[in-house]
Amino acid sequence: MTHPFMTQPSPSLVPHAGLRAAHVSVRYGRRAVLHDVTAGPFAPGTVCALLGPNGSGKSTLLRAIAGLVPSSAHVTLNGEDLSRMSLPDRTRRCLYLPQALPAAVQLPVLEALMAARQTVRTPLPSAPAEEDAIQAALESLSLFGIPHLAMQAMDELSGGQRQLVGLAQALSRKPKALLLDEPLSALDLHHQFAVMDILRRETAAHQLVTVLVLHDLNSALNLTDHVTVLHEGRITASGPPAAVLTPELLRETYRVRARVDTGADGRKFVSVEGIA
Ligand SMILES: Nc1ncnc2c1ncn2[C@@H]1O[C@H](COP(=O)(O)OP(=O)(O)OP(=O)(O)O)[C@@H](O)[C@H]1O
Question: Looking at ligand 1, which atom is closest to the CA of residue 60?
């Protein structure tokens, strides 16, 4: 069912600015998972949440935008046609971070970050370039409050630490669009807020387009600029979080009875009263 609230993210003044994926259809074998979905344009400088129940196609949509699953998608970023690019060129601009990094990597964190950064630069095996790379990797780790993990092996990190390193690695590659699949899923409350704060600041400062899959509707309500809701492989609503996330939408999409209230500080919050 299409929700009555279907608007596009705040339009940018630059023509063709932002990320847009048109006519995304994806099949796994004989099963259609996304049905001619058109998402965006997601404006530069905004953090956009992709919401929806389990199995609705959120990860598949992010992977299709990144060019990681075969699809009919036509994807543009700031006027460039990503669909026509080689995967490395596309990834340099539009980076997908999966929910979990592989656990079995034995590299120290610092080296893993330097290796990731190297994939987006022309190799310059000089000592100053190496120092720059170390400096940049340390800065990324510091941004996420984890410089102390620099010499720890990747396969000795906790799940949450691995997620923070993944985010540091993704930002250090300096893409123009970041596609983050449940980037908060392994993080404690402190780190969930800290990461959202960092993502909002970095997105604004570098005019990135950040699209992230979230299950926490309160984070989506208060910490993102725009939400897009997927249900059974179709977009059912898209627009400002407070306008889209209504009790009606939550009943239709998530099959819950829920209230959306405004706290004394003006922040909105969802409370679920039961199963619809
Ligand atoms: N590699 C695959 N092969 C076959 N089917 C797949 C594959 N990946 C996903 N699917 C199916 O596609 C549908 C959408 O999956 P997807 O992972 O995109 O959903 P999601 O909205 O991200 O779900 P969740 O919130 O549970 O992570 C699901 O029904 C899933 O079973």
Answer: 18
